[in-house]
Amino acid sequence: MAAADLPAVVADAATGNVLYAARPLDPWRPASLTKLMTLYLVFEALDAGDLGGEESLPVSGRAAAQPPTKLGLAAGSEIAVDDAVSALIVRSANDVAVVLAEAIAGDEATFAALMTFRARDLGMGRTSFANASGLPHAGNVTDARDMAILARALLQHFPEQADRFAMLGMSHGGRMLPSYNGLLTAYAGADGMKTGFTCASGYNLVGTATRDGRRLIGVVLGATSRGARLAAMRNLLDRAFVDGRADGPLADLTGPAPATEPPVVIPPAACGPAAEEEILLTGRSAPAARAGIGGWGLTLGILSDKAAAQGLVASARKRIEPAITGGKPVLIERRAAGITRYSALLTNLSQQQAVSACRTLRAANAYCVTLGPEALKNARAMWW
């Protein structure tokens, strides 16, 4: 789907006036954008004194069993509310979403009903929620207009929480975990909010940015890659900051009659097991099978700086997109002779994708070696 065809909205955060809209009412799967409503209810509970920032919340077996992305909390452990909020924003943690839902409403189903009720109260007329995380469910439906309304409500109703959406990382288990929101470091003035991805939804983004004291809210739904999502958002915000013409409030936004069902953006067969997650393996402690790594892969280099290794993967993805999308970014941390090094890999590709990607990268004088399934399973290989 071309960037110009994506459902999208840009609005002024202060006035709520629309600066750009395309297919604003098309029904869409929110994926992890759902967590913006989870956060709204958490912030309400904090304001009401029903939760305390330093309060420890128990992790149920159901919460611990959620699929990635997650922190990997163990059943019976605890997490502080403030840490849970950070984990939702920075790492889109599904296990944490259920912890918070159960703390507020007793169970996730009741919490989802509260989410939908609050959506209606805020004027999100086409949105419903079936869970706290945005994991695939037929009951999770939204549109670009409603997501812009929710983003504005978060900024207006909880201004003291706004800075949290600009966090570039969080500390957990002795490690610094980077944010999934690439807009924060790729766009001047970016200061929030949230990414989302499932095969059905494609790559979604609600972003905010401030320039010369003016904050804009952007929503992009259904991009086919992280790079396409980021490029679309940057283009829309750039145009809106320069043009700035308003077409009326979000609440009055209309458009062509939308489809009755959300589309499937990336068919499951094409999407594969890729997750919105960078996997960091340490030494040989997490073999490929346990980390969800499979198919074919690329090894892109070994560096002593983690950020540089992350940049190597990001640069490689940028070079091969949009011809090749998907894949799972993997960093392998190894310590030897007092030196820490990071191997940068991209896995979970088809053979054709891996061969084509390496050919493209080598043509650009970048290092790349293809790794077949047996090579990725080799526990003695240098990348483990």
Describe what you observe in this structure.
The chain is of the alpha+beta class and 384 residues long. The protein folds into two domains: 3-252, 3-Layer(aba) Sandwich (Beta-lactamase); 278-377, Sporulation related repeat (Alpha-Beta Plaits). Helices cover 34% and strands 23% of the residues. It has twelve helices and 14 strands. It has helices spanning 34-48, 61-64, 81-91, 94-105, 108-122, 144-157, 183-186, 226-243, 268-271, 306-320, 351-363, 373-377, and strands spanning 8-12, 18-22, 56-58, 78-80, 169-172, 175-178, 190-198, 202-211, 214-223, 279-282, 296-303, 328-336, 339-349, 369-371. Helix 1 crosses helix 4. The longest helix is centred in the middle third of the chain and has 18 residues, at 226-243.
